[in-house]
Structure formats: C-alpha cells, structure tokens
Amino acid sequence: MIDKKNISIVIADDHPMILKGLNDELSASNYNVLAQAANGMQALEAILTHNPTIALLDIDMPLLTGFEVIKMAKQKAVDTKFIILSFHKENEYISQAKTLQINGYLLKEDSFSEIEECIQEGLKGNIYFSRSFAPSSLAIVSEDLKKIKYLTSSEKTILKLVAEKMSSGEIAEKLFISIRTVEKHRSNIIMKLEIENTTTNALTNWAYLHKNVIKEL
C-alpha cells in the first residue's frame, strides 16, 4: 500500500461545507491535499498545475462540470486518477462516467472509509463504483454502451442529431441525404440498440436520455 503522504489530491466542490469537510478528513488521514477548488475552472487549473495522484470532483459545478474537467484534463494527458463524488445516482451519469473511463464514482452519502477504498482501488488501476449503486444499474449501463459501439459512423452521426431532437426531415436537410435514408438509419439504430419501439418517439426519447454520452461518440 502506498504511503498516504505520497498520495497527492486535488478536491473540487462548489459547496463550501462539503469541500471543507472533505479537506479536513483527508488531511487528518495524512493524505497530501494540494489544492481545493470551488468551480470547474479552478479544478482544471489545479490539476494541470499540480498533476495530482488523485482528483476528487463534484459533477455540478460552475463554469465546468466535473465530467468536463475530466475530459479536458485527459486531453492534456495528465497521470491523475479521477474520482467523482456526487449526489447523482441516475444511469445517464453512470454512462458518462463509464464513457470517460474514470477510476471511481462515489456518492456523497458514502462513508470516508469507502472513499479510501475507492482511492486504493483507483491507484491499482481498477474502477470502483459506490456500493450504493445497484449492480443491475451498472450492468444495464454497460450493455447500453456496448451496443452503441456496434453502430456505424453514419448511424452515430444520425444518433447525435436525433439526441438534439431533430426530425428526420431536418436531419436529411442537414446531411444532404433523403428522408428515406434517415428513416432506414433510424430503423437500424433501433434494432442494434434493442430499443422497444413502442412509440414513434422511442428512439428520440432514448437518445435524449443518453445525450451526454452520445455527444462523446
């Protein structure tokens, strides 16, 4: 096990009490807290400046979300392991986390001992999700992401536009193709993603729900 003093950490949350509490707990446990950030831009700057071992980030922050911070930091090829600490339990957030290949996703209701467990697993290169998540939810999200990978580049382009709630006519006009071609792509997407086509808006509803993941395709 790595000495805690050698584990450098940047923490970010726009709630002052949560930020202070997290800092106090980590410092008392001998972790090396390098910086605290109250918004996403501060968090990104701290990560790029210090290249910490771990970054503990909230999702909903001013200027940049935690996910945006992670995406931008990864583009700079930092060595930091990323852990989300949030109130969000919804599948769309789990999907985003998995798409970004983060190292951990914890809930703010979790104990500090679980935060430490997540940190240790992240340092081993493992991915840790809060024990509060139902295994079935994690499995469903994983299957959805696998299915998306089966789409062709053209189908992914169509899906992105569907997620923006564009009609088949609007998509056809934008891509300079026929409405019939768009409808064929939509049909193939529904089949590959195994979406229950019970309503005319089934694909639109699915795409909008997963829009934050789809835009990363």
TrEMBL record:
Q: Which domain of life is it from?
A: Bacteria
The UniProt entry's GO biological process terms, in alphabetical order, are: phosphorelay signal transduction system; regulation of DNA-templated transcription
Q: Where in this protein does the record say 4-aspartylphosphate is found? A: 58
Q: For the HTH luxR-type domain, which residue ranges apply?
A: 144-211
The GO molecular function terms of this record are: DNA binding
Which InterPro entries does the annotation name?
CheY-like_superfamily (IPR011006), NreC/VraR/RcsB-like_REC (IPR058245), Sig_transdc_resp-reg_C-effctor (IPR016032), Sig_transdc_resp-reg_receiver (IPR001789), Tscrpt_reg_LuxR_C (IPR000792), WalR-like (IPR039420)
> What protein does this entry describe?
Response regulator transcription factor
Q: Which organism is it from?
A: Aequorivita lipolytica
Output the lineage of the source organism. Answer: Bacteria, Pseudomonadati, Bacteroidota, Flavobacteriia, Flavobacteriales
